[in-house]
Amino acid sequence: MKVEIVEFVGGARNAKGVAVIIDVFRAFSVACYAIDAGAVRIIATSEVSEAFRLKNIYKNSVLVGERDEKKIEGFDFGNSPTEIFKTDLSGKTVIQTTTAGTQGLINATNADAVLTGSLVNAGAIIKYIKTINPEQVTLVAMGYRAINSAEEDKLCAEMIATELMNEKFIPGTRITDLQYGSGSRFFIPENIDYSPPTDFFLCTMVNRFDFVLKATRRFDGNIDLMKIEL
Q: What phi and psi values does residue 28 have, to the nearest 5 degrees?
């Protein structure tokens, strides 16, 4: 099995084999919490206008996402696992758009299969990939706003890559230390309304969920994310 780590939208476009689109802070952590809260599926899209169009089609749906980290005007929820964690989404379709993660999903057009990636289900991702045993895996660290490298995404990619090679990944204090680096924004008082400290802790609960979210491209170019239980 060949495993490659790449970054950003360009990395997603060139991803081959099984692509894992990684967005730890916060898109694909949010997606896992939404499924755990009872959502029946997630539709990922790259454009805000498209999200509103889908909302008109799927009546039992909620809009989740951000631009510049903040909840989009007219959306039901921001890109915050704290909001999702305390919400009952039973039977709901979640329509999600974010600056980084969902852009990666939309652009991973050359991969044979696409999964979301986060720390909260990293173990399930590793288990699933080992089960299907592909020739190639591309781990796409989407980064901050899809333009700057993000410690948390690269750490998640390293964790998955190491374990896929049947080696033990030992993070030490690297995960908790994220709060002093790329995760420090969650501890800035003026950000508390849209990026509270609880988001950091919910996004760094490694292996909280034992399922993967697999992407299927829709007829309209958007992405359906469906849960595969392990």
A: -90, -5
8 Å CB contact between 224 and 114: no
* pLDDT tens digits, 170-219: 999 999 999 999 999 999 999 999 999 999 999 999 999 999 999 999 99
In the chain, beta strands by DSSP E: 2-7, 18-22, 41-44, 61-67, 70-71, 93-97, 113-117, 136-141, 211-217, 223-229
The answer to whether 217 touches 106, Cβ cutoff 8 Å, is no
Q: What share of the chain is helix, strand, coil (3-state, %, to 5)?
A: 35, 25, 40
Ordered by where they begin, the domains of the chain are 2-229 (3.90.1560.10)
Tell me how far apart the alpha carbons of residues 175 and 206 are, in angstroms, rounded to a whole number: 9
C-alpha dist (Å) from residue 104 to 50, 84, 93, 157: 16, 22, 20, 15
* pLDDT (tens digit per residue) in 141-151: 999 999 999 99
144 in helix, strand or coil?
strand
Cβ atoms of residues 52 and 74 within 8 Å? yes
Residue 118 in 3-state DSSP? coil
pTM of the shown model = 0.98
Query: Does the bond joining 26 to the residue before it have cis omega, within 30 degrees of 0?
Result: yes
Place of tokens 């995404």: 153
Rounded CA Rg of the chain? 16
Which residue in the block uniquely carries the two structure tokens 């009952």?
88
